[in-house]
Hints:
Layout: H1 15-20, H2 22-25, H3 31-40, E1 42-46, H4 52-62, E2 66-70, H5 95-106, E3 111-115, H6 124-128, E4 133-136, H7 141-154, E5 157-164, E6 167-173, H8 181-184, H9 197-200, H10 204-223, E7 232-237, E8 242-247, H11 270-273, E9 281-282, H12 284-292, E10 297-301, H13 305-310, E11 316-318, H14 321-325, E12 338-342, H15 347-358, E13 364-367, H16 370-375
Parallel strand pairs: 1-2, 1-4, 2-3, 4-5, 9-13, 10-11, 10-12, 12-13
Antiparallel strand pairs: 5-6, 6-7, 7-8
Helix pairs in contact: 4-5, 4-10
Amino acid sequence: xxxxxxxxxxxxxxxxxxxxxxxxxxxPQIQASGQERIRNAKVLCIGAGGLGSPxxxxxxxxxxxxxxxVDFDTVDETNLHRQILFGQSDxxxxxxxxxxxxxxxxxxxxxxxxxxxxxxxxNVLEIMSNYDIIIxxxxxxATRYLINDAAVLLNKAYVWGSxxxxxxxxxxxxxxxxxxxxxxxxxxxxPGTVQNCAEAGVLGVLCASIASMQVNEVIxxxxxIGELQIGKLMIYEALEAEYSKIDIxxxxxxxxxxxxxxxVNLLENYESFCGVVAEAEISAKELKNKFANNDDFLLVDVxxxxxxxxxxIPGSVLIPVAGFVDASAFKLLPRDKEIILHCRSGxxxxxxxxxxxxxxxxxxxxxDGGIVAWEKL
Length: 377
């Protein structure tokens, strides 16, 4: 779909800017006016992980004037094979802090705003409203639906991406011109039916391929060049080195993008919408107190064996996520004491919590922030 430029040109480029972006400016479809639009653009990237890392580097290299980064997490050793913004010395540091430093080293001519927080219903509209276009580089369904609904309310274009093992997908959603994410996925998958990177794995280089698709759409939208892939799901299969596209049609019954925007509101709880029992949480401090008080409970680590071997909370037992998905874990769990689940950051344990509560283990919670929060005590 051909669209007009999303961003107006800013002031004329300085000599330094003209030199830095000369190989981009020389492209007939971009020229100085296109680069001025890029320099005048504000792009928000939600997530600084596998997709966010290469996306942020290419946004900065392209000369996007203002880049926003939302991420609450810290750098972990398991990130390093695919999250190219980070190195060994960054382990334990906040991702947004490291990302800002690396971006400013790559291109000191851009402005970087950081948001070291978890995006949620209390802040998403305020943060997204300050940007021209959004990149969704997140890895969980609750946040994806939240970003989509906020984008519809604000009439913002956003580019979504997803990776799993050797396959990746990307799409640009703009509800005033085409479908939204809910038109593609009207309802979230049942908890435990879709594995995340920690469970299924991901080929590191695949992240760069999908992130490049995302940034390509962002630059096209900013400058008005080419055809935006609105209404298309772009698919890359790395093992076969094959790209394909399938059509996404606007759903006339979509509860978000096919109704009057004044009648649309954010959901009260996106975790609950996705089957995650967000209210059944315990903080790391509360868990420490339970140990100190010798409370009777079972602490279950739902990570993978290699993660458990590398670091663990004393007193925990290992039952990986797969056991909750196929229900084999249920026979190992007591019904006469409290069960507390944990993973690395709280995403996998929340999924497992929804599964065991559905199976009748109502006296159960999960550790907010996972072992990352525990290790910060």
